[in-house]
Specification:
CATH class of the domain at 375-504: Mainly Beta
CATH superfamily of the domain at 375-504: YVTN repeat-like/Quinoprotein amine dehydrogenase
Largest sheet: 4 strands, antiparallel
Number of strands: 67
CATH architecture of the domain at 375-504: 7 Propeller
CATH topology of the domain at 375-504: Methylamine Dehydrogenase, Chain H
Oligomer: single chain
């Protein structure tokens, strides 16, 4: 028979928060993980980004910090142009043409789309020759002309444009001469679009992706088989010398043939540079810089030294030395996870491209970029910045990597197989510095005890083995004790994974949504949105009888917890989930969350959001003993049959570690065991195994005084 233990929770308690009306604070140090559609420079350090979800992001310090601007709920700016006067013109997805006189803070519609939706398009864009003359391309093949700096726009009707083929590119040679290409055909106008004629040229046999004229005579063309150059106004074209034959999807330059010209690949992530007006080209960024993903690319140069590249998935890279080196400013994808291994330690958030760590005292941010081209699919930490990552190498294998510094450096350990296109690794859990578990979506789970160098099937029965492979999540209590949770039940190990105990969940036909355990086998679970209290090592269950449905739960102890309702509201309870109070906060959609303390919550997930809610009002815990910043919670359960606990946490008014001594006394006041003696910072759980039934006193000695709670053991 397994020995039962009493868990004592000592608490220098923040008091459990119930908030008034609160707001969510944007915490991302970089833009969110949405697709960037365009970028403009006001100066070398001042940038404005437009994003596919309607967000505008601005930085005035070369991309170190960003401010968010919401443009519109349902629309988004896809293309922008900045005039020398600072006036901006833009095209939106819905077909609106806009103008801004204040650097993008506010916009005025100067053209409204047709009601039939014909001007809606994912590739709507602005192409200007100078601050007065330009075109907008809307709905893939509708040309709108301006000759007064975007103040007014007029639709250009011409039979040269087929309604069946989108305009792939549009480039000005001067104010009246323009080039257009679609469906493999290159066309030219010399009268601002009144008439067009097809151009026969050397690159006509090749699919054209881009045009750029450096002046009225010198032009560049990015074709399927390489780069072409003209020095006679486009009458003839010659193939330029380059280090590759990848098609160029866009050019960027500053006036002057002696200056540098830049080209970016159309379907390969490569940047080329010419210092000879386009006659000779060299590669300055290789494909793996963008993780070799095909997609739309754009390059923007502010001057000969400063520029930016928009790559696939919304990545933005910046150069300050003419393209010799590039720095990632904006990573693709969402914030996948945020981790704090114990209160008081830094919080580390992870995206596919980098991690950033927040100091809880100063909120200073430290960013760590992953090695170029490395984007982990799964990650799990053991220490503050040490743990394991999985990266898919091919359709058939995943690589296992170890990091000791949050991903800045990686050590390859081994490869794991993929059994089918859907049965892939779905969970990675680091148990200790040398032990980790990988669970597959529909298959078995594997454990490594040598730091990921080799893996063995978990030594559990087939039913439980199938279950743990599809586990939703894992919770770590210490190096030896871990709980895995899924639809079917719980797997518990208390010896670091050498042996497992499977406990089938009641109502197994229903789905599991979330769990929050205070100790192994004791805590709360959501089943079909209903809250259940669990104790006695998962053997006893009780429905809280609360009428509402929840999506997520988090409990600080068995009495106090937080939840997200099915409507998205953040609510909190101080009576074991029987009643709940609203906080006034609506959680972001499809979010994960983390509670570093009772006073703040961090939300992460959709579109890269990382937001924080803080400043909750204190609410004293029932039965707690307090003295100037320290609180000793009532043991739970009390009387104790199996185990009980007491929790201590240092308040925000005492951010530094505090000396605490916790002892157990019998009914006569004799000290029978010392539980802890030393500096304490954050929440700690202390386990105590009583030797016989009786009345015990738990005493916590602090610099502010002595606190006492009674514990009855039957």
């Amino acid at each position: 028979m397994r020995e039962r233990s009493v868990t004592l929770l000592v608490c220098v308690f923040f008091s459990i928060p119930i908030a008034g009306a609160q707001t969510l604070e944007w915490m991302n140090p970089t833009p969110r993980g949405t697709t960037v559609t365009d970028l403009i420079f006001f100066d070398a350090a001042h940038m404005l980004l437009s994003c596919a979800d309607g967000t505008m992001l601005e930085s005035t310090d070369a991309g170190s910090r960003w401010r968010e601007r919401t443009f519109s709920g349902d629309d988004a700016i896809l293309s922008m142009y900045k005039m020398e006067t600072g006036v901006l013109v833009a095209a939106t997805r819905a077909g609106y043409l806009l103008r801004s006189l204040d650097g993008g803070k506010s916009w005025t519609a100067v053209h409204e789309p047709e009601p039939d939706g014909s001007q809606y398009g994912e590739d709507n864009r602005i192409v200007m020759y100078d601050d007065d003359n330009g075109f907008a391309i809307l709905g893939s093949n509708i040309l709108i002309l301006t000759q007064n700096g975007g103040i007014s726009w007029n639709r250009l009707i011409t039979t040269a444009i087929s309604e069946y083929y989108p305009i792939l590119g549009f480039a000005p040679q001067d104010a009246r001469r323009w080039w257009m290409f679609h469906n493999g055909v290159v066309m030219r106008t010399t009268n601002t679009g009144s008439s067009w004629h097809e151009v026969q040229s050397q690159m006509q046999s090749s699919l054209v992706y881009s045009f750029k004229f450096l002046d009225g005579f010198h032009g560049l063309c990015g074709a399927y088989d390489g780069i072409y150059r003209s020095s006679d106004g486009g009458d003839s074209w010659q193939r330029a010398e380059s280090e590759g034959d990848e098609p160029i999807g866009g050019f960027a330059f500053k006036p002057g043939l002696d200056g540098a010209v830049y080209g970016i690949g159309y379907d390969q992530s490569v940047v080329q540079r010419s210092m000879s007006g386009g006659a000779h080209w060299e590669r300055i960024m290789e494909p793996d810089a963008f993780d070799s993903q095909p997609g739309a690319y754009k390059i923007v140069m502010y001057d000969q030294q400063t520029g930016a590249v928009i790559g696939p998935g919304g990545r933005v890279y910046r150069t300050d030395n003419g393209g010799n080196t590039w720095e990632l400013l904006h990573g693709a994808g969402v914030v996948r996870d945020i981790i704090q291994l114990q209160p008081g330690l830094p919080l580390t958030a992870y995206t596919p491209d980098f991690s950033f760590t927040f100091d809880p005292a100063t909120m200073q941010i430290t960013r760590t970029e992953f090695p170029l081209g490395f984007s982990p699919d799964l990650l799990s930490l053991h220490k503050s910045r040490a743990g394991y990552m999985l990266k898919q190498h091919s359709p058939y294998t995943y690589g296992v990597y170890y990091t000791s510094d949050g991903g800045a450096t990686l050590e390859y350990r081994s490869e794991l197989p993929v059994y089918s296109h859907s049965n892939i690794p779905a969970m990675l859990h680091t148990m200790s510095v040398e032990s980790l578990v990988v669970g597959y979506k529909y298959g078995t789970a594997y454990r490594s005890s040598d730091g990921g160098r080799s893996f063995d099937s978990l030594a559990i029965d087939p039913f439980a083995q199938w279950w743990i492979g599809s586990a939703h999540e894992a919770q770590r209590f210490d190096d030896q004790t871990h709980v895995f949770t899924s639809d079917m039940g719980f797997s518990l190990t208390e010896d670091g994974g050498e042996s497992w105990h499977f406990i089938r969940k009641p109502h197994v036909q229903t789905g599991y949504e979330d769990a929050s355990f205070i100790a192994p086998g004791e805590g709360y679970c959501l089943i079909e949105g209903r809250l259940y209290r669990v104790w006695n090592f998962f053997l006893e269950w009780e429905w809280t009888h609360h009428s509402g449905l929840f999506e997520k739960i988090h409990f600080f102890d068995m009495q106090h917890g937080a939840a997200i309702t099915s409507e998205g509201g953040l609510v909190m309870s101080r009576d074991s989930g029987s009643t709940w109070r609203e906080t006034g906060i609506t959680a972001p959609e499809d979010c994960g969350w983390l509670w570093p303390s009772h006073k703040e919550c961090w939300f992460y997930g959709k579109e890269g959001r990382l937001q924080r809610a803080s400043g909750f009002l204190p609410l004293s815990a029932h039965g707690a003993r307090t003295v100037r910043g320290f609180t000793l919670e009532t043991p739970y359960p009390n009387p104790a049959r199996a185990h009980s606990k007491v929790t201590f946490t240092i308040t925000a008014e005492r951010p530094s570690p505090q000396n605490v001594r916790l002892v157990v006394q019998d009914a006569l006041g004799r000290e029978i065991q010392q539980l802890t003696d030393g500096e304490i910072h954050g929440t700690q759980r202390v386990h105590y195994t009583p030797k016989s039934p009786g009345l015990y006193h738990i005493r916590m000695h602090t610099a502010s005084g002595i606190l006492t709670q009674k514990l009855v053991v039957r």
